[in-house]
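seq/struct pair 1
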Amino acid sequence: MMSSDAPGFELPLRLLLAFRMLIDELHAELARQGHPDLRPMHGFVMQAIGPRGTTAVELGRMLGVSKQAAGKTIDTLERVGYVERTTDSHDTRRKIARLTPYGMDALTRSARIFDDLRARWADELGADRLHALEADLRKLTPDGLWRLDTPGWFGSL
């Protein structure tokens, strides 16, 4: 049982550890379901690419990384079949990265796996306690869930 006078540094480390556990479990299950090449960074990238696609410049801006870093990640995801590059129909100089059906499958499976992981937490903690935890985190954090610049933020440390 944890003491109520835990040091202040423990809270962010516990939150990070919980995040890491969920992401590690997600990727283990994704690998079992046919997506062994996905890495945690890829989830941020694929969310940023979204259903409409994006350029490397826009992707870098959303992720808080350089155009070159975004381009390398697009290359990696293209090599393993999650992303394809197409020419923008409005401006043939622009290359758009789009998710392939395989990439969309990974995102769909990820959502289901996260639902399963959340259900496991509800079983372990109790649904009421999990709802309270989520409500408390909503009070303490900004409204925007989709803060995709975490990779760039970690890289700037």
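seq/struct pair 2
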Amino acid sequence: MTAPASTPLTPYATLLGFTRYVDRTGPTKATFVGGLRKQRASRSGFNPHGQFVKALKADIAFHTGGTHLAGVADIVKPRWRPLYQALVPGATTWLHSLGEPTAVDLAQTRDALAMLGDLPVKINPHFGVRHADGRAEAVRLHFDEAPPSEESVLATLHLMARHMDAVLPHAEPVLVDVRRGLAHRMPTDAKPDQIERWLSGEAAAFRAIWSTAA
């Protein structure tokens, strides 16, 4: 009796995975997509930043100005302490850049599913921020040691903006480079139509690589 054929994995990417993919060039693109596919097949993956995000959100929600961030490295497993210690100073700088703690509130964001051609991409900001003057921001955090490239910034902000009605209506997308405490916003001279064409091409190539990696 022959074993049933395994169900092929549908091409799929998270916002983080897709923006890391567009940042790569040449053969490293194929290697990266192959790694994503294997991770999906094995259902593996671990997020080491969960406690950090929770502390940052608590400081915004409770208007505590960084006290949760200041103590978070002490409550995680020792293996993660160096990572958290590297992240806290920049995150605190960004938190203070928002102004008076009481003038900022945490806002609930929702995930959305973007279709780039036939490629589903999960749009998942970390949280939202609402200012006293009514402005709102949907925030995605960048944790890597290297700062985000211009390509990854444009891809992240464009895809978030494209689905902002679902994510956090009337909000502005922001990508925060946590280690450096810098907030990236869409450049005023950005051309959404050009970015959309570029990302559609990247998505088509992603799908092709995913299929050949089967």
